Amino acid sequence: MRLKIDAQTEFIKEICSYYMDFLKTGFKKTRFPKRYLRITDEKGYKIGIDLSKYEKFNLSLKKRINKSKGFEESINVNKGEFGVKLNNKSQDLIQKLVKQISEKDIERIVNLTNKTIKQCSQDYRTKPDEAYEKINETIKYDLDKLIVDPICEKMDPLIGSQSNYEIESQNTLRLRLSDTIISPLTDGIPYIFNDLLANKKIKPRDKIAELFNKTDIANNILNSFKNLDVKDLYYDLREIVISRRNLDKKETYLNIFHIEIEGKVFPLFYTQINITENSGSAKFKIEPSSELFLNKNAIKYAFDVLKTDKNIIE
User: Fold this and answer.
1) Contact 90, 155 (CB under 8 A)
2) Which stretches within 44-148 are classed as H helix?
Protein backbone atom coordinates (compact mmCIF):
# COMPACT_ATOMS: atom_id res chain seq x y z
CA MET A 1 0.00 0.00 0.00
CA ARG A 2 2.88 2.30 0.87
CA LEU A 3 4.47 1.70 -2.53
CA LYS A 4 1.25 2.70 -4.25
CA ILE A 5 1.03 6.00 -2.32
CA ASP A 6 4.70 6.80 -3.09
CA ALA A 7 4.11 6.14 -6.77
CA GLN A 8 1.05 8.42 -6.83
CA THR A 9 2.97 11.14 -4.96
CA GLU A 10 5.81 11.04 -7.49
CA PHE A 11 3.31 11.23 -10.35
CA ILE A 12 1.58 14.25 -8.78
CA LYS A 13 4.97 15.96 -8.33
CA GLU A 14 5.75 15.52 -12.01
CA ILE A 15 2.35 16.93 -13.00
CA CYS A 16 2.80 19.93 -10.72
CA SER A 17 6.30 20.55 -12.06
CA TYR A 18 5.00 20.36 -15.62
CA TYR A 19 2.29 22.98 -15.04
CA MET A 20 4.61 25.15 -12.95
CA ASP A 21 6.89 25.53 -15.97
CA PHE A 22 3.93 26.74 -18.01
CA LEU A 23 2.90 29.18 -15.28
CA LYS A 24 6.39 30.66 -15.21
CA THR A 25 6.37 31.20 -18.97
CA GLY A 26 2.78 32.42 -19.17
CA PHE A 27 1.68 29.15 -20.81
CA LYS A 28 3.97 29.94 -23.74
CA LYS A 29 6.64 27.58 -24.94
CA THR A 30 9.95 29.16 -25.88
CA ARG A 31 10.05 29.58 -29.61
CA PHE A 32 12.83 28.10 -31.69
CA PRO A 33 15.27 30.96 -32.43
CA LYS A 34 15.03 32.18 -36.00
CA ARG A 35 18.74 32.97 -36.23
CA TYR A 36 20.74 29.77 -36.55
CA LEU A 37 23.66 28.76 -38.73
CA ARG A 38 23.07 27.18 -42.13
CA ILE A 39 25.36 26.59 -45.08
CA THR A 40 22.62 26.62 -47.73
CA ASP A 41 19.00 27.75 -47.79
CA GLU A 42 15.92 25.87 -48.99
CA LYS A 43 16.67 26.73 -52.62
CA GLY A 44 20.26 25.55 -52.41
CA TYR A 45 21.90 28.97 -52.37
CA LYS A 46 25.06 29.21 -50.30
CA ILE A 47 24.34 31.47 -47.33
CA GLY A 48 26.98 30.38 -44.80
CA ILE A 49 30.59 29.28 -44.41
CA ASP A 50 31.95 26.90 -41.80
CA LEU A 51 34.96 28.94 -40.71
CA SER A 52 36.09 26.37 -38.13
CA LYS A 53 38.03 24.56 -40.87
CA TYR A 54 40.03 27.65 -41.77
CA GLU A 55 42.51 27.60 -38.88
CA LYS A 56 44.75 30.36 -40.21
CA PHE A 57 41.80 32.71 -40.71
CA ASN A 58 40.46 31.92 -37.22
CA LEU A 59 43.82 32.78 -35.66
CA SER A 60 43.80 36.08 -37.51
CA LEU A 61 40.24 36.74 -36.34
CA LYS A 62 41.07 36.00 -32.70
CA LYS A 63 43.95 38.44 -32.79
CA ARG A 64 41.56 41.12 -34.00
CA ILE A 65 39.04 40.35 -31.26
CA ASN A 66 41.74 40.81 -28.63
CA LYS A 67 42.57 44.27 -29.97
CA SER A 68 40.54 47.23 -28.71
CA LYS A 69 39.84 48.48 -32.25
CA GLY A 70 40.46 45.26 -34.15
CA PHE A 71 37.04 45.19 -35.77
CA GLU A 72 37.33 48.66 -37.17
CA GLU A 73 39.88 47.40 -39.70
CA SER A 74 38.91 45.59 -42.89
CA ILE A 75 40.00 41.99 -43.47
CA ASN A 76 41.58 41.06 -46.80
CA VAL A 77 41.14 37.52 -48.13
CA ASN A 78 43.46 36.79 -51.03
CA LYS A 79 43.05 33.82 -53.31
CA GLY A 80 45.13 30.95 -51.93
CA GLU A 81 45.80 32.67 -48.60
CA PHE A 82 43.40 30.73 -46.37
CA GLY A 83 43.10 27.07 -47.27
CA VAL A 84 42.14 23.68 -45.86
CA LYS A 85 44.31 20.59 -46.29
CA LEU A 86 43.19 17.02 -46.98
CA ASN A 87 41.59 15.37 -43.95
CA ASN A 88 43.37 12.73 -41.87
CA LYS A 89 41.64 9.79 -43.55
CA SER A 90 42.84 10.94 -46.97
CA GLN A 91 46.37 11.50 -45.67
CA ASP A 92 46.29 7.99 -44.22
CA LEU A 93 45.26 6.54 -47.58
CA ILE A 94 48.03 8.28 -49.52
CA GLN A 95 50.61 7.00 -47.02
CA LYS A 96 49.37 3.45 -47.54
CA LEU A 97 49.30 3.84 -51.32
CA VAL A 98 52.89 5.11 -51.33
CA LYS A 99 54.01 2.03 -49.39
CA GLN A 100 52.59 -0.13 -52.19
CA ILE A 101 54.86 1.38 -54.84
CA SER A 102 56.83 -1.53 -56.25
CA GLU A 103 60.62 -1.61 -56.32
CA LYS A 104 60.30 -3.54 -59.57
CA ASP A 105 58.37 -0.66 -61.16
CA ILE A 106 61.04 1.80 -60.02
CA GLU A 107 63.76 -0.46 -61.42
CA ARG A 108 61.86 -0.68 -64.69
CA ILE A 109 61.81 3.12 -65.00
CA VAL A 110 65.51 3.33 -64.10
CA ASN A 111 66.36 0.78 -66.80
CA LEU A 112 64.16 2.58 -69.32
CA THR A 113 65.86 5.90 -68.51
CA ASN A 114 69.28 4.30 -68.87
CA LYS A 115 68.38 2.78 -72.23
CA THR A 116 66.78 5.99 -73.53
CA ILE A 117 69.74 8.18 -72.54
CA LYS A 118 72.16 5.84 -74.31
CA GLN A 119 70.02 5.77 -77.43
CA CYS A 120 69.56 9.55 -77.49
CA SER A 121 73.31 10.06 -77.08
CA GLN A 122 73.60 8.48 -80.53
CA ASP A 123 70.47 9.85 -82.21
CA TYR A 124 70.69 13.39 -80.84
CA ARG A 125 74.40 13.86 -80.26
CA THR A 126 74.32 17.23 -82.07
CA LYS A 127 70.95 18.27 -80.60
CA PRO A 128 71.15 17.93 -76.81
CA ASP A 129 68.11 20.13 -76.11
CA GLU A 130 65.92 17.83 -78.20
CA ALA A 131 67.49 14.84 -76.44
CA TYR A 132 66.52 16.16 -72.99
CA GLU A 133 62.91 16.58 -74.10
CA LYS A 134 62.76 13.17 -75.78
CA ILE A 135 64.14 11.41 -72.71
CA ASN A 136 61.65 13.10 -70.38
CA GLU A 137 58.70 12.25 -72.64
CA THR A 138 59.68 8.59 -72.81
CA ILE A 139 60.16 8.24 -69.05
CA LYS A 140 56.98 10.14 -68.20
CA TYR A 141 54.75 7.68 -70.05
CA ASP A 142 55.85 4.70 -67.95
CA LEU A 143 56.00 6.79 -64.78
CA ASP A 144 52.34 7.80 -65.16
CA LYS A 145 51.23 4.28 -66.00
CA LEU A 146 53.07 2.52 -63.17
CA ILE A 147 52.98 5.04 -60.30
CA VAL A 148 50.89 8.16 -60.90
CA ASP A 149 47.66 6.75 -62.36
CA PRO A 150 47.05 4.08 -59.67
CA ILE A 151 47.41 6.73 -56.94
CA CYS A 152 45.26 9.37 -58.64
CA GLU A 153 42.45 6.93 -59.38
CA LYS A 154 41.99 6.37 -55.64
CA MET A 155 42.68 9.92 -54.45
CA ASP A 156 40.59 11.85 -57.00
CA PRO A 157 37.19 11.00 -55.44
CA LEU A 158 38.37 11.96 -51.95
CA ILE A 159 39.79 15.26 -53.13
CA GLY A 160 36.63 16.06 -55.07
CA SER A 161 34.35 15.33 -52.10
CA GLN A 162 36.30 17.69 -49.81
CA SER A 163 36.76 20.55 -52.23
CA ASN A 164 34.60 23.69 -52.33
CA TYR A 165 35.74 24.44 -55.87
CA GLU A 166 37.17 22.49 -58.77
CA ILE A 167 40.79 22.56 -57.68
CA GLU A 168 42.01 20.98 -60.84
CA SER A 169 40.82 18.43 -63.32
CA GLN A 170 41.92 14.84 -62.95
CA ASN A 171 44.35 15.33 -65.81
CA THR A 172 45.87 18.42 -64.17
CA LEU A 173 46.28 16.58 -60.87
CA ARG A 174 48.12 13.78 -62.67
CA LEU A 175 50.40 16.27 -64.39
CA ARG A 176 51.17 17.94 -61.09
CA LEU A 177 51.98 14.66 -59.34
CA SER A 178 53.95 13.37 -62.32
CA ASP A 179 56.06 16.53 -62.41
CA THR A 180 56.69 16.23 -58.66
CA ILE A 181 57.99 12.67 -58.99
CA ILE A 182 59.99 13.13 -62.17
CA SER A 183 61.51 16.45 -61.08
CA PRO A 184 64.80 14.94 -59.74
CA LEU A 185 65.27 13.10 -63.02
CA THR A 186 64.34 16.15 -65.10
CA ASP A 187 66.93 18.21 -63.25
CA GLY A 188 69.63 15.54 -63.42
CA ILE A 189 69.14 13.98 -66.86
CA PRO A 190 70.83 16.83 -68.86
CA TYR A 191 74.01 16.45 -66.79
CA ILE A 192 74.01 12.65 -67.09
CA PHE A 193 73.38 12.95 -70.83
CA ASN A 194 76.19 15.48 -71.18
CA ASP A 195 78.59 13.19 -69.29
CA LEU A 196 77.75 10.32 -71.62
CA LEU A 197 78.02 12.56 -74.67
CA ALA A 198 81.49 13.64 -73.56
CA ASN A 199 82.64 10.16 -72.52
CA LYS A 200 80.86 7.07 -73.91
CA LYS A 201 82.56 4.81 -71.38
CA ILE A 202 80.50 6.30 -68.55
CA LYS A 203 77.73 4.05 -67.15
CA PRO A 204 74.77 6.30 -66.36
CA ARG A 205 72.57 3.72 -64.60
CA ASP A 206 74.03 4.21 -61.11
CA LYS A 207 73.54 7.96 -61.27
CA ILE A 208 69.96 7.50 -62.48
CA ALA A 209 69.24 5.12 -59.60
CA GLU A 210 70.53 7.73 -57.14
CA LEU A 211 68.13 10.31 -58.54
CA PHE A 212 65.14 7.97 -58.79
CA ASN A 213 64.62 5.84 -55.68
CA LYS A 214 61.62 4.83 -53.58
CA THR A 215 62.51 6.95 -50.55
CA ASP A 216 62.69 10.21 -52.52
CA ILE A 217 59.63 9.31 -54.59
CA ALA A 218 57.59 8.57 -51.46
CA ASN A 219 58.64 11.83 -49.77
CA ASN A 220 57.83 13.89 -52.87
CA ILE A 221 54.37 12.33 -53.21
CA LEU A 222 53.54 12.72 -49.51
CA ASN A 223 54.68 16.35 -49.47
CA SER A 224 52.66 17.07 -52.59
CA PHE A 225 49.42 15.87 -50.99
CA LYS A 226 50.31 17.32 -47.60
CA ASN A 227 50.58 20.78 -49.14
CA LEU A 228 47.48 20.42 -51.32
CA ASP A 229 44.64 22.81 -50.40
CA VAL A 230 41.23 21.28 -51.05
CA LYS A 231 39.33 24.35 -49.85
CA ASP A 232 39.94 28.05 -50.29
CA LEU A 233 38.12 30.75 -48.30
CA TYR A 234 38.32 32.99 -51.36
CA TYR A 235 36.02 30.65 -53.31
CA ASP A 236 33.63 30.29 -50.36
CA LEU A 237 33.28 34.08 -50.23
CA ARG A 238 32.75 34.21 -53.97
CA GLU A 239 29.83 31.78 -53.65
CA ILE A 240 28.31 33.92 -50.89
CA VAL A 241 28.56 37.05 -53.06
CA ILE A 242 26.99 35.26 -56.04
CA SER A 243 24.15 33.84 -53.91
CA ARG A 244 23.44 37.25 -52.39
CA ARG A 245 22.51 38.59 -55.82
CA ASN A 246 19.62 36.10 -55.95
CA LEU A 247 18.34 36.58 -52.39
CA ASP A 248 15.88 39.10 -50.95
CA LYS A 249 17.91 39.57 -47.79
CA LYS A 250 21.24 41.16 -48.64
CA GLU A 251 22.71 41.34 -45.12
CA THR A 252 25.76 39.24 -44.32
CA TYR A 253 26.97 38.52 -40.80
CA LEU A 254 30.18 37.29 -39.24
CA ASN A 255 29.49 35.03 -36.26
CA ILE A 256 32.08 35.35 -33.50
CA PHE A 257 30.96 32.65 -31.04
CA HIS A 258 28.27 30.01 -31.30
CA ILE A 259 26.46 27.37 -29.27
CA GLU A 260 25.02 24.02 -30.36
CA ILE A 261 21.60 23.00 -29.02
CA GLU A 262 19.60 19.95 -30.08
CA GLY A 263 21.61 19.51 -33.26
CA LYS A 264 21.34 23.17 -34.32
CA VAL A 265 24.13 25.75 -34.16
CA PHE A 266 23.22 29.28 -33.02
CA PRO A 267 25.41 32.39 -33.10
CA LEU A 268 25.96 34.06 -29.72
CA PHE A 269 27.79 37.18 -30.88
CA TYR A 270 27.77 38.46 -34.44
CA THR A 271 28.37 41.57 -36.47
CA GLN A 272 27.18 42.69 -39.88
CA ILE A 273 29.81 42.74 -42.60
CA ASN A 274 30.15 44.00 -46.13
CA ILE A 275 32.00 41.84 -48.67
CA THR A 276 33.46 43.45 -51.78
CA GLU A 277 35.47 41.77 -54.50
CA ASN A 278 38.58 43.12 -56.15
CA SER A 279 38.54 40.95 -59.24
CA GLY A 280 41.68 42.52 -60.62
CA SER A 281 43.79 41.15 -57.78
CA ALA A 282 41.72 38.04 -56.86
CA LYS A 283 40.91 39.41 -53.43
CA PHE A 284 37.88 39.98 -51.20
CA LYS A 285 37.61 42.70 -48.59
CA ILE A 286 35.51 42.07 -45.46
CA GLU A 287 34.42 45.24 -43.71
CA PRO A 288 32.85 44.68 -40.25
CA SER A 289 30.38 47.14 -38.77
CA SER A 290 31.07 48.92 -35.48
CA GLU A 291 28.18 47.08 -33.77
CA LEU A 292 28.38 43.70 -32.05
CA PHE A 293 25.06 41.91 -31.55
CA LEU A 294 24.02 39.42 -28.88
CA ASN A 295 21.61 36.60 -29.78
CA LYS A 296 19.40 36.80 -26.67
CA ASN A 297 16.80 34.39 -28.07
CA ALA A 298 19.41 31.66 -28.49
CA ILE A 299 20.66 32.14 -24.93
CA LYS A 300 17.11 32.02 -23.50
CA TYR A 301 16.29 28.96 -25.61
CA ALA A 302 19.47 27.24 -24.40
CA PHE A 303 18.55 27.80 -20.76
CA ASP A 304 14.97 26.63 -21.33
CA VAL A 305 16.25 23.45 -22.94
CA LEU A 306 18.59 22.87 -20.01
CA LYS A 307 15.72 23.41 -17.54
CA THR A 308 13.81 20.52 -19.07
CA ASP A 309 16.77 18.20 -18.56
CA LYS A 310 16.58 17.20 -14.87
CA ASN A 311 20.07 15.75 -15.05
CA ILE A 312 21.54 19.20 -15.72
CA ILE A 313 19.40 21.82 -13.91
CA GLU A 314 16.70 21.21 -11.31
Assistant:
1) yes
2) 55-66, 88-99, 103-123, 128-143
